[in-house]
Design brief:
single chain; mainly alpha; Four Helix Bundle (Hemerythrin (Met), subunit A); 2 domains
């Protein structure tokens, strides 16, 4: 019987699970905490990234607004130079210098508009206003150059020519520049709203993911506690009640349990006999091998 009990202990030792219930619960809690921290880190990083994007958008639009104001200043100077050429009088040296300044300003304005169009991109909400401003500027430039050619042919009344072009209601680049600045402001608000919507959508996704994770964690806690704490306690209480009342109906059947134990002992005895027989055969084979050597 001592050998049987030793074999029973060794068999029960071999059949123990490699991971205990406590270890599996700790692993689950640790994995849940890692996933939760990962979601929290991702949401924090994304929120900071969105704030950085808003700052970049703000800085970019401020830069474009300053460029639009510079463009307005250059155009006012351009217009003033043109009027100065017409109204100053017939001084060849002054006319030549002012004309060079006029064309230089025209090239600078054209370059500034092209640069702003390239920076805004074709999908910008304010690009249409910039194209309108560009067309208005080219139209005004053609009229200004035609007036200068007329002046160069010794116009009799340059003041009349200047006023006629300036007062033409269809030519107003300054007004178009104001419209372009308003379009830039609208584009900035649109970019802010777009980034804000993306941030809110991501926050809702993270909140749902965290809520789902918390639900899984609570369900697992309930399962572990019910399976390994509450149920054994309830079974112990029920068994104690049955023993105190002298009832062993279905929960604790002594006769069936005794029968099962007897069957187990018989199986263990058979296993012991098989092991002893195999050991004897090994010893016999070893002796025969030694004799043959």
């Amino acid at each position: 019987m001592t050998n049987i009990h030793a074999d029973l202990q060794s068999t029960s030792t071999l059949r123990k699970p490699t991971i205990s219930i406590r270890t599996s619960a700790l692993i689950f809690i640790l994995a849940t905490a890692i996933v939760f921290c990962a979601l929290l880190g991702i949401s924090t990083y994304t929120y900071r990234y969105a704030l950085d994007q808003r700052t970049k958008v703000s800085d970019w639009h401020v830069t474009q607004l300053r460029a639009a104001e510079d463009l307005r200043y250059m155009y006012l100077k351009y217009e003033h130079t043109w009027k100065d050429i017409l109204l100053r009088g017939h001084n060849p040296q002054s006319y030549h210098n002012q004309l060079s300044s006029f064309y230089e300003l025209e090239r600078r304005i054209q370059t500034a508009i092209e640069d702003m169009a390239r920076k805004l991109g074709p999908d910008s909400p304010s690009i249409t206003a910039l194209y309108t401003l560009e067309q208005e500027f080219y139209q005004a430039g053609r009229l200004y150059r035609r007036a200068l050619r007329t002046y160069n042919e010794d116009i009799s009344d340059p003041q009349f020519a200047a006023d006629a072009i300036i007062n033409d209601a269809s030519i107003n680049p300054i007004h178009r520049n104001t419209e372009f600045i308003e379009a830039l402001e609208t584009s900035r608000h649109y970019s802010y709203e777009q980034i804000t919507r993306e941030m809110q959508r991501f926050e809702r996704t993270i909140a749902l993911a965290v809520l789902f994770l918390i639900c899984i964690f609570l369900a697992a806690v309930y399962y572990f506690s019910n399976r390994f704490i509450i149920s054994p306690i309830n079974r112990g209480i029920s068994l104690a009640e049955h023993i105190s009342n002298g009832k062993f109906e279905n929960d604790f059947d002594i006769e069936n349990t005794t029968t099962e134990i007897k069957k187990l002992l018989q199986s263990l005895q058979q296993m012991q006999a098989s092991v002893n027989h195999a050991s004897q055969e090994l010893i016999t084979a070893k002796e025969q091998a030694e004799q043959s050597n």
